Amino acid sequence: LTFYFFDQLVNDPRYFRILEISWHKCEYVGEMVAIRDTHLECGNRYLAITEEGFRTAQARGHLPAGLDTRCAAIGLIAVVDGLVLNWTLDRTRFPLASYGPVIVDTYLRGLLVEDAR
Fold first, then answer.
1. 117-to-12, 57, 73, 101 alpha-carbon distances in Å
2. What is the pLDDT of residues 74-96, one digit of tens each?
3. pTM of the model
4. How far apart are CA 110 and CA 51, in angstroms?
């Protein structure tokens, strides 16, 4: 899902433009508050899905039993959001399509139990 997001952002100019406007050029006041609320609702759903995925991986022994799955999910979202925020500000800074998956994979590998690395 995350890699599809990167691909859409890089290869679909309309998708990029919508994200660029909503992240960098939009003030959530007045009638725009509804858009902010929708954005937050989508973010909360993504957080819940991500956290559930980490809990499942934890139950299967791929992640440490003591891992705070909510913290790990927020960390993953922070990595993805940070990549996208910086890339949309300056697309020449780094190639999102190739760096993004490697950086996300590095974060995820850091969560693995020692035996699974």
1. 35, 14, 19, 18
2. 999 999 999 999 999 999 999 99
3. 0.84
4. 16
